[in-house]
Amino acid sequence: MRSKSIARVRSTLVIILAAIFFMGCAVVMTYAAGTSSDKVTVTLSAGDSDQYYVVSENVEATGDLAETYFPAIAGYEPEGVSWFDVLVAYHISKYGKANVTAKLGLEDYSYAAITKAFGVDSSAVMTITNGAYTNAANEAVKDGDKLYLGFYKDTSGWSDFYGAFVKDEYTAKAGEALDLAVTANSYGSEVVPSAVTVCTLDQETGAKTELATTYKDGIATVTFETAGIYYVVPSGESTYSSWSGEVTGVISGDVSMVTVTAEEDISPAPLMVTGLESVRVKGKTMKIKFDKLDGAKDYMVEYKAAGKKKWTSAMTKGKTTYTIKKLKSSSMIEVRVSAVVVDANGAVVKTDYSKVARMYVKAVKGSAKAIKKGFTVKLTKDKKAASYDLQYSLKKDFSNAKKKTLKKSKTKLTVKKLKSGKTYYVRWRPVAKKGGKKYYGVWKTAKVKVK
User: Fold this and answer.
1) pLDDT of 201-259, one tens digit each?
2) Most CB atoms within 10 A, among 74, 173, 265, 425?
3) What is the DSSP letter of 284?
4) What CATH fold (topology level) applies to the domain 2-151?
């Protein structure tokens, strides 16, 4: 797949090189290859107007990777870490070293081409670094860069254009409208899309889901009804003047994250136990805790293995903690709690059950290390984990915490653009899946002072 930039300047290059030849001159274009000491962590997304293949993933790459798998590009890469190195690093983590060349294809600088990526063949791609078009063959990437690899749908008129929301992260409340400003351009020329729809992306499959969107003058407005974390991209089209004439093109581009918090509940608090969570795991035992319920004389804990019907119950003797024993290590269980209270008539009654908490009997070791204006977290891989939750906050109770999710293949995350000299609290937990439901492990916490 030849990059759009090279396709446009090929005829110019032929003329220039011919002139040099007839002048009796010889020109050799070479670049210093990177070394294993050159290392960066970047955020990578990739896709087209219909489907994404990578949804906002952190990739750590070194400067000596690409030419190891694709010797033809040796000597043509920029000094440091190249786009090619990043793509090879991602393919290693996703598909394994043995499958890199089957899923990825790179040609030398004379073609400046990415002929295949993520197992997808195509004749052209756009490479975007921090929102700007770039030539993947001769520009190095830096630590913290945001990269997007776009697959062109139209390889004759080159009508596809890059688009994204202006911010990497947004916050909103469930049920409230959120305005998302859209930035778009066609190889450096600004474009105002004529139509935009906000789409969410499934981080596992890359599938797009359209949301009900109101769009006007570069602002897309949507409402998220349910709390959670959403990965979003703009989808749409616009007619504009291109190098090939007047064309109508579609958008594809970088991913933004929207954290949606729950709507404020102004109704009276229900008479049930809340705040149920696991706080410690050791071998075959797991300790749980929950919030105190006013008027409660005692509490009943009930639990069962995931997918089973029979509950095991025990009283806590008035305590708001309980240690469940004789569990299987790395098993998945469901837990609920009710309280024993005295009602208005003086009768002893049992409250409604709490919401069922799905727990994974596991915690993972890890560490947080300070870097300049940020920190890096490294986790011990858990074979049963489907993903890992990570949060960080300036407050010990993790109020207003920022949230991140790592796929099961990822055990390292670098967070940047933080306040120097500030102490951040960081915690992580494994998340397992069974029967389409998520089971959450025990949080492990660390404290780090940013440099």
Assistant:
1) 998 899 999 999 999 989 999 999 988 889 999 998 877 766 666 777 888 899 998 98
2) 425
3) T
4) Ferric Hydroxamate Uptake Protein; Chain A, domain 1 (2.170.130)
Quote the tokens at residue 187.
């190889």
* Beta-carbon contacts of residue 385 (< 8 Å; ≥ 6 apart): 360, 362, 364, 408, 430, 431, 432, 441
341 has which bridge partners? 296, 349
Provide the CB-side half-sphere exposure for 40 (13 A, CA): 25
Tokens of 119: 């197992």
Q: CB within 8 A of 21, min separation 6: which ones?
A: none
In the chain, which segments carry CATH 2.170.130.30?
2-151
Model confidence pLDDT, tens digit, residues 145-194: 999 999 988 777 778 889 999 999 999 988 999 999 998 887 767 888 88
**Residues 424, 401: Cα–Cα separation, whole Å:** 10
Dist. CA 403–CA 43, nearest whole Å: 16
CA distance 87 to 95: 12
Report the DSSP beta bridge partners of residue 440: 359, 431
In CATH terms, is domain 366-449 a member of 2.60.40.10?
Answer: yes
Class of domain 161-261: mainly beta
Q: What is the CA radius of gyration of the chain?
A: 26
